[in-house]
Structure formats: structure tokens, C-alpha cells
């Protein structure tokens, strides 16, 4: 296995993401985590760009001791001097000089001829060499540059003292095969190339930054540059966690490894997301919220039988505690039963069926069924004695408007199997509903207490209602849940009446037995 160096530029190119602005303390916190993560080099910033960035790079250079700290600079003397002032306290001060080599950048941006570009690059590398032992030189926009010209300038900057040569795909323009060929070409056509390390630096404009980086490694790159979570200018940079895990998981095919502590990935990703405010999309490879989550029944069943059926990466490898079986409309019975087992509740096959049916019904209305929702369903089934004939709510409707009297219409099935219907007005929707249900039940009922809560958060959370009734002098409690508050309220009322029925029936049974 050959060792590939990881050059992290989260604090420089990552910070160039529109809208991201890290202060010194934030940069220092990220730098500490990058050191723990084990990156070989970290580009802490661009010292000449602002006083704030100078201070941040200096603080990082003075603090971080196990990772080489680098600062970016243009090929301008003052940029080099400022970079030195910021970095001289580092364990191993290093500078990253860049100058564009593509025709469009040279002509329009730099307004220099190719000869002037060579001369500037060489003289500034020589100047920087008086201060820095380690100099990375980047041919900005290398992938849109003339390859022969690239080979010529690279040979000269190596002679001037560069120790690392970087071929950036500045605008994310290249493709894996082409980028691989460029590395091969430079390796074969620059006579002194063996004196330096070769680095790749990819942007993700066409979504190929990680694939391009791996192609570069296959063709001679010994260093990969990128950022955590792939943040960076425009569509971002190659996501380092993706590169590292791809090399690890496909070590059967790629004979390369990094020195990164992969189980620090999640922590590193979290701190970068939090401090930059650039949150990771749910389906992001390696560390997205869904990267280890399974929703569909067939996948969940496979994962429960053997996680490797649908997981090529273990969550633990990247510091994620465990996978999640997300219960939703595509889930099946196996995952459902597994979740019930987690609650420590024993359900018979019939109860599982009933709970599963209720769960599936709920998924038609709710995007994500939470553990709280499931627990409520399971508990309702578990605490409901189904062997006794009970009242059943067939359907109901409540009419409410600020200008008219709320009125409820309810259809109930009674314990002896009859269907009864009535409508009553009330002061409010719940009162109208309760008065109507009461009118259909041939018992003397008094409502003592009524409560309504939401289970979990979100606008589609389940409603749970608790009531206390006195039925024919007996105090009984009832509980009901549903997505709609009125349905939950009706369920709670009927549940309390049914509990009364069970109580009475049980007492009658006892009397019969003693007779
Ligand atoms: C591909 C990359 O990611 S490169 C890094 C990009 N990062 C940044 O630009 C972030 C920090 N930048 C900044 O804060 C500012 O741009 C500064 C402080 C560096 C410069 O600010 P200003 O002096 O106002 O110049 P401005 O940014 O408008 O223009 C850039 C100048 O640098 C020149 N320049 C660009 N690259 C280089 C280079 N590698 N070497 C020398 N000069 C360069 C441009 O030609 C232009 O020069 P001009 O003023 O003679 O036309
Ligand atoms: C400074 C260089 C390496 C850069 O960020 C790029 O070309 O994208």
C-alpha cells in the first residue's frame, strides 16, 4: 500500500464558499479537529488577504504541532512576506504559491505573456525559498492549460525550489480519464519531477471532484487536496472524507491508503457544518443523515439479516454510532417488529398485525413516523382488552365556524352490534363531539378532565388526548391518539367508556364464577 498525503483546505478554499466567514477562534477549533483527524497538511488561510485571516493563520501555526500548517500567497513579494510573518512560528512553516497557466487566465486576468508567467513564478518561488523550506506551487487552471507549457514551467519552478507541484482543476472542468492522463504526462515529461510530490486539487462543478482525485492518484499524484464536507468555491472541492473512505472500502482494488483516523469523520464533519453554517444534505455520501438509514422494507429486512446486504461501509468506521431503520411508508413487517422489540414490549402475532396496520395507515398521512408515534400505537393496542364487545367510532363530522354554532354528527357501533347516529350542538367542537357521543351511549356519563398534547414535534405530530369520566358513578380514564385533535379526543372518550364496559363485565364474570 502506498501512503497518500491529505492536504486539507477547509480553512482556505472551504472558507471561500459564498456566505462563509470564520473568525479566529472558529478556525482554531476546526484546525484542532483536523489535527485529531490526522490530515498531513492544513492550509490555514491566505494571510495577505486580511488582518483577520493573518491573525487566524498565525494562531493556528503557533498552536498546531502534529500537522504541517500552510498559508496561501500570490506570486507577489508582499504576499510572501506576510505569509512568513504569519507562519514562522509553525513547526514546519510552508507556503502555497499559485499562478495561473491557462491562456484565458494569463491573457485576461493576469495580463501577462506565458514567458512573463514563467519568469514571475520562478522568481517568486526563489524568493520564498529564502524563508520557507517547503513550497507548494500550483499551476492555477492547470486543466485548461497547454500541457507542453505546463511541463516547461513546472520543470523551472522545481529548479527554483518548489517541493510540491499541484495541478488544480480550478473550475471543475476535467474528467477522470483526462485528469489521469495529465498526471501521467507531467510525470513522464518533466525531467526533475521525481524531486517533488505531485498533488491534485479538484473542484466539483461537474460533480466529478472525488472521481478526478482518485484518477490522479492512480496516475502518480501522491497528495490529494480537498475539504471536509466538500465545501469550497462555487460547487465546492473534493470531499476528503469521500476520497479517504473510497480508498479504504475499495482497498481490494486501490493499493493506496491515507493516515486519516476515519472514525473522526463524523465529528470533523459536524464541527465544520456547525461553524460554517453549511449543513450537509441528507443524502451526502459518507456522512449525510441518510447515509446509514434504510427506509424500504426489502432493504430493512436484508440489513436485519446481514447489514452487508445493503451497507458497504459500517457506520462505526466513520464515527457514526449505528445505522437507522427509518420507519416510513416503504417499511415492512421485519423492521417494524425489530423496533417494537427495542421498546421491550411483547406483542402477539395478532397485536403485531393490528399495530402494523395502524402504522401503515399513519404513514399515508405522516412523512416520518417517530418512535414516540409507534410507542403510542403499540401501547394503545397493548393496553386495550379486545375480547369484550365495545363501542366503536364508525365516523364523525364536526362543523365549526366563527359565525355559527359548532355541531357534531357521530356514527357509533354499540357493543350489541347496532349502528346509531346523532347530531348535537356545543359551545366548541370538542363539546359538540362529546355531547353527541354521550347521547349515543346509554350510560350516565360525566366528563371530569380533558387533556390534549402533541406526541413529538412537527406540524404533522400525533395528538394524544387523556380524559377522565365518571360513568354510572365509576371513575375511569381513557386515552386516544390520532393525527387529528378531534379524532384523538373522540378516541379518548370512547376508550374511557369501553374501559368502564370492561370493568363492569369483569365484575359480572367474577360474580358468575362465585355463584
Ligand atoms: C483559485 C483560487 O482559489 S485562488 C485564491 C482566491 N482567494 C481569494 O481571492 C480570497 C482572498 N482574496 C482577497 O482578499 C483579495 O482578492 C486580495 C487581498 C488577495 C487582493 O485584493 P485586491 O488587491 O483588491 O485585488 P483583486 O482581488 O481585486 O484582484 C486580484 C489581483 O491579483 C492578481 N492576481 C491574481 N492571481 C495572482 C497571482 N497568483 N499572483 C499575482 N497576482 C495575482 C490579479 O491579476 C489582480 O491584479 P490587478 O489588480 O493587477 O488586476
Ligand atoms: C490556489 C489553487 C490551488 C486553487 O484553489 C485552485 O486552483 O482551485
UniProtKB/TrEMBL annotation:
<keyword id="KW-0464">Manganese</keyword>
<feature type="binding site">
    <location>
        <position position="13"/>
    </location>
    <ligand>
        <name>Mn(2+)</name>
    </ligand>
</feature>
<protein>
    <recommendedName>
        <fullName>2-isopropylmalate synthase</fullName>
        <ecNumber>2.3.3.13</ecNumber>
    </recommendedName>
</protein>
<dbReference type="InterPro" id="IPR002034">
    <property type="entry name" value="AIPM/Hcit_synth_CS"/>
</dbReference>
<dbReference type="InterPro" id="IPR000891">
    <property type="entry name" value="PYR_CT"/>
</dbReference>
<keyword id="KW-0479">Metal-binding</keyword>
<dbReference type="InterPro" id="IPR013785">
    <property type="entry name" value="Aldolase_TIM"/>
</dbReference>
<comment type="subunit">
    <text>Homodimer.</text>
</comment>
<feature type="region of interest" description="Regulatory domain">
    <location>
        <begin position="392"/>
        <end position="515"/>
    </location>
</feature>
<comment type="pathway">
    <text>Amino-acid biosynthesis; L-leucine biosynthesis; L-leucine from 3-methyl-2-oxobutanoate: step 1/4.</text>
</comment>
<keyword id="KW-0808">Transferase</keyword>
<dbReference type="InterPro" id="IPR050073">
    <property type="entry name" value="2-IPM_HCS-like"/>
</dbReference>
<dbReference type="Pfam" id="PF08502">
    <property type="entry name" value="LeuA_dimer"/>
</dbReference>
<feature type="domain" description="Pyruvate carboxyltransferase">
    <location>
        <begin position="4"/>
        <end position="266"/>
    </location>
</feature>
<comment type="function">
    <text>Catalyzes the condensation of the acetyl group of acetyl-CoA with 3-methyl-2-oxobutanoate (2-ketoisovalerate) to form 3-carboxy-3-hydroxy-4-methylpentanoate (2-isopropylmalate).</text>
</comment>
<dbReference type="Pfam" id="PF00682">
    <property type="entry name" value="HMGL-like"/>
</dbReference>
<feature type="binding site">
    <location>
        <position position="203"/>
    </location>
    <ligand>
        <name>Mn(2+)</name>
    </ligand>
</feature>
<keyword id="KW-0432">Leucine biosynthesis</keyword>
<feature type="binding site">
    <location>
        <position position="237"/>
    </location>
    <ligand>
        <name>Mn(2+)</name>
    </ligand>
</feature>
<keyword id="KW-0028">Amino-acid biosynthesis</keyword>
<comment type="similarity">
    <text>Belongs to the alpha-IPM synthase/homocitrate synthase family. LeuA type 1 subfamily.</text>
</comment>
<dbReference type="InterPro" id="IPR005671">
    <property type="entry name" value="LeuA_bact_synth"/>
</dbReference>
<keyword id="KW-0012">Acyltransferase</keyword>
<dbReference type="Pfam" id="PF22617">
    <property type="entry name" value="HCS_D2"/>
</dbReference>
<keyword id="KW-0100">Branched-chain amino acid biosynthesis</keyword>
<keyword id="KW-0963">Cytoplasm</keyword>
<dbReference type="InterPro" id="IPR036230">
    <property type="entry name" value="LeuA_allosteric_dom_sf"/>
</dbReference>
<feature type="binding site">
    <location>
        <position position="201"/>
    </location>
    <ligand>
        <name>Mn(2+)</name>
    </ligand>
</feature>
<dbReference type="GO" id="GO:0003852">
    <property type="term" value="F:2-isopropylmalate synthase activity"/>
</dbReference>
<dbReference type="InterPro" id="IPR013709">
    <property type="entry name" value="2-isopropylmalate_synth_dimer"/>
</dbReference>
<dbReference type="InterPro" id="IPR054691">
    <property type="entry name" value="LeuA/HCS_post-cat"/>
</dbReference>
Amino acid at each position: 500500500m502506498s501512503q497518500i498525503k491529505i492536504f486539507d483546505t477547509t480553512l482556505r478554499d472551504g472558507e471561500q464558499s459564498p456566505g462563509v466567514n470564520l473568525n479566529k477562534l472558529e478556525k482554531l477549533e476546526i484546525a484542532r479537529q483536523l489535527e485529531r483527524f490526522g490530515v498531513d497538511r492544513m492550509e490555514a488561510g491566505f494571510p495577505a488577504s486580511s488582518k483577520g485571516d493573518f491573525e487566524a493563520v498565525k494562531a493556528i501555526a503557533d498552536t498546531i504541532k502534529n500537522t504541517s500548517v500552510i498559508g496561501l500567497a500570490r506570486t507577489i513579494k508582499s504576499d510572501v512576506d506576510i505569509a512568513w510573518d504569519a507562519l514562522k512560528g509553525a513547526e514546519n512553516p510552508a507556503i502555497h504559491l499559485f499562478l495561473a497557466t491557462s491562456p484565458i487566465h494569463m491573457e485576461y486576468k493576469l495580463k501577462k505573456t506565458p514567458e512573463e508567467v514563467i519568469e514571475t513564478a520562478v522568481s517568486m518561488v526563489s524568493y520564498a525559498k529564502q524563508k520557507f523550506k517547503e513550497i507548494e506551487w500550483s499551476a492555477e487552471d492547470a486543466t485548461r492549460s497547454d500541457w507542453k507549457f505546463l511541463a516547461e514551467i513546472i520543470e523551472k519552478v522545481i529548479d527554483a525550489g518548489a517541493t510540491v507541484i499541484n495541478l488544480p482543476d480550478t473550475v471543475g472542468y476535467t474528467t477522470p480519464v483526462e485528469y489521469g492522463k495529465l498526471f501521467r504526462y507531467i510525470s513522464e515529461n518533466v525531467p526533475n519531477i521525481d524531486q517533488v510530490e505531485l498533488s491534485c486539487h479538484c473542484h466539483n462543478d461537474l460533480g466529478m471532484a472525488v472521481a478526478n482525485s482518485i484518477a490522479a492518484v492512480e496516475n502518480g499524484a501522491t497528495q490529494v487536496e480537498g475539504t471536509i464536507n466538500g465545501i469550497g468555491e462555487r460547487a465546492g472541492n473534493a470531499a476528503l472524507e469521500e476520497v479517504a473512505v473510497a480508498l479504504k472500502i475499495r482497498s481490494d482494488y486501490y493499493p493506496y491508503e491515507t493516515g486519516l483516523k476515519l472514525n473522526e469523520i463524523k465529528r470533523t464533519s459536524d464541527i465544520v457544518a456547525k461553524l460554517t453554517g453549511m449543513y450537509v444534505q441528507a443524502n451526502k455520501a459518507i456522512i449525510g443523515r441518510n447515509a446509514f438509514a434504510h427506509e424500504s422494507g426489502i432493504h430493512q429486512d436484508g440489513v436485519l439479516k446481514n447489514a452487508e446486504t445493503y451497507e458497504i461501509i459500517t457506520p462505526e468506521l466513520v464515527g457514526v454510532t449505528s445505522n437507522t431503520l427509518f420507519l416510513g411508508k416503504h417499511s415492512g413487517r421485519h423492521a417494524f417488529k425489530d423496533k417494537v422489540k427495542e421498546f421491550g414490549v411483547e406483542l402477539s402475532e395478532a397485536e403485531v398485525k393490528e399495530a402494523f396496520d395502524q402504522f401503515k395507515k399513519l404513514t399515508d398521512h405522516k412523512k416520518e413516523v417517530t418512535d414516540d408515534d409507534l410507542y403510542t400505537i403499540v401501547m394503545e393496542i397493548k393496553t386495550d382488552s379486545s375480547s369484550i364487545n365495545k363501542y366503536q367510532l364508525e365516523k364523525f363530522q364536526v362543523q365549526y365556524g366563527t359565525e355559527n354554532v359548532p355541531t357534531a354528527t357521530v356514527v357509533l357501533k354499540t357493543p350489541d352490534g347496532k349502528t346509531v347516529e346523532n347530531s348535537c350542538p356545543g359551545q366548541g367542537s370538542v363539546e359538540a363531539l362529546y355531547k353527541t357521543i354521550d347521547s349515543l351511549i346509554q350510560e350516565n356519563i360525566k366528563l371530569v378532565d380533558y387533556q390534549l398534547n402533541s406526541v413529538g414535534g412537527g406540524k404533522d405530530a400525533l395528538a394524544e388526548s387523556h380524559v377522565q369520566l365518571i360513568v354510572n358513578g365509576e371513575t375511569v380514564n381513557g386515552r386516544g391518539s390520532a393525527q387529528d385533535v378531534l379524532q384523538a379526543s373522540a378516541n379518548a372518550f370512547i376508550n374511557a367508556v369501553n374501559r368502564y364496559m370492561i370493568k363492569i363485565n369483569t365484575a359480572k364474570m367474577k360474580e358468575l364464577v362465585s355463584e
